[in-house]
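Collaborator request, handled under Task 6.
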Amino acid sequence: MSDLPFTLDQLRILKAIAQEGSFKRAADSLYVSQPAVSLQVQNLERQLDVPLFDRGGRRAQLTEAGHLLLNYGEKILSLCQETCRAIEDLQNLQGGTLIVGASQTTGTYLLPRMIGMFRQKYPDVAVQLHVHSTRRTAWSVANGQVDLAIIGGEIPGELSESLDVIPYAEDELALILPVFHPFTKLEKIQKEDLYKLQFIALDSQSTIRKVIDQVLGRCEIDTRRFKVEMELNSIEAIKNAVQSGLGAAFVSTSAIAKELQMGVLHRTPIEGVVVKRTLWLICNPNRYRSKAAEAFSQEILPQFANPGWNQDVLKSSQKNIVLTTLEVATPASSGED
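Structure tokens returned to the collaborator:
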């Protein structure tokens, strides 16, 4: 074919329909009219000579050809975004964008502090923070939608070889109690005392809950014996419930600094137990790393990391990264998944 049978706008529309589930919601998200979206899809199907959607159901469902085009279309759009960001870098941090990912706890309590420090130094760089589950965040880094991320859960096994996964910092989990609980008068409690408490916990299917259970298990604390009186869907809700006297909870120390300072929660030590988990820094060595991402990695990340953490993996030649990106865009390597 001498001419491509699709445009970038058509790929953006296809992606929006797949994400939103309907032509109308896709049109709203793109700030265009629904007839304009329908016309572009019709033109695309005519140019490709295949149907891209099953139009029988209430939700827009992709056909096999639609899924195939969406898969490659997302890669094309991602490379286009990388290209634009590489060109923006020519302005030498007088503009551009930094996209940072995080899992729930790190994104709520750690990354805002880091981004605040970065913005003070580079006010002209636009910064985006994407807070999702560890799995979704890892895929975003792998697909080039996020420059780097700090997460607390496990990386999907299928991504372990394509991402750099670096031990970054230790996050301590603290036992918190209402300030008027009898245990607050004790200097320390014993492990067995935990099974006498009523607990407030995250939903049993949440990633953070599973991580906390695993970490406590390594400390020989059997969370199956906990009396879980209530399950909530956020750390903030759990803190408020504990503060109101509804039970105890294990939460990250980064999440309770303000409450401890104000004296509205009590942190209770456990004899012979320090509960910690590892926070991981993840990045994709095969994607273009912008000057903004380089500056964030070299100037901000070390200030919050464990002493002696391995920062060498983040040091890369801009020239080599650009060459890698160009190689991916060539026909010889376009078939690689």
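The cover message to the collaborator said: "Residues 164 and 285 are 7 Å apart (CA to CA). DSSP finds eleven helices and eleven strands in the chain. Please let us know whether this matches your experimental observations."
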